Amino acid sequence: MEKSIKKDIQTPARVCVKTCMKIKSDEKVLIVNENNDSIVDAFKEACEEAGAIVKIKNIKLERDREEPPEEIANELMNSNVALLVTQHSLTHTTAVMNARKSGVRIASLPGITEEMFCRAVPVDYDKMQELGEKVKRIFEKNDFIRVKTDKGTDVELEIKGRIIIIDSGIIDKHGLVNLPDGEVEVAPLETKTNGKIVVDGCGSPVCETKFGKVGKIKQNIILSVEDGRVVNIEGWEQAEILKNLLLDLNDPNAYTIAEFAVGINPKAEITDKILESEKVLGTIHFALGENRSMGGINESKIHWDFVLKNPKIYSKEGELILDCSKLRV
Q: How confident is the model at residue 54, as a pLDDT?
């Protein structure tokens, strides 16, 4: 790996280490690397500047939510902090969930690029937290919400009794951040989502598979949802890829609406990577599959996100409660 780190990469690395993860002297930091040496080098230097003890482990994953090797799972449990710099997501794996429960502070960066790292990580986290609190209060006042977009989305969901989580990129104790961060999320009741979701931003998976990938949306993908499950997928090439991938999984729970979230990061942009696209200020996203880490009860092989632009959110009575296009940090 490179011995000298470019300044523009080192800056967001220090933000992650000092502001987001609050890494201290003598803490044990595990960096998991899947083909991203430049950002790993930057993290290593920033951690050592903070006085941490750094260990780097390389990994090769075939898909999102693939469990890491036992050696890495054990290293996770024996660390104070873990920085997961991967192409495929480890966020919703059992190994990561167990490490979180044991008190490890984790940053997951699946699909991170240098451009994204430098653009969307150095943000005003205090202001992003303030906006997150505003959105959270709106959700907490509504057990039932309806989402519409000008592309044809019209979907109803129930969030009664579910925790509203602000992911503003800062860990004070144990937990996980998904960097770049910036969203307010909730796991809807698994059988209570109904309607039509028109995906026009970005979609999972973003890594190549035997069927292809989804990524930045070229032509809208239409998901028809009944009683919390996707029952039909319409569209063109990307829709067909998604259909084939879901069928190939042989996982009935992969069709369940697992998450609803609002993006609050003012520097994030819609790209070919879901990691950044789902954080874009004023967007929303829905996810399919796994949601136990956010207070849901659905276990699945996947957690795949789908981003929608320019949404409006309404109460059960039809009152406009959030015009996402007007959100400002």
A: 98
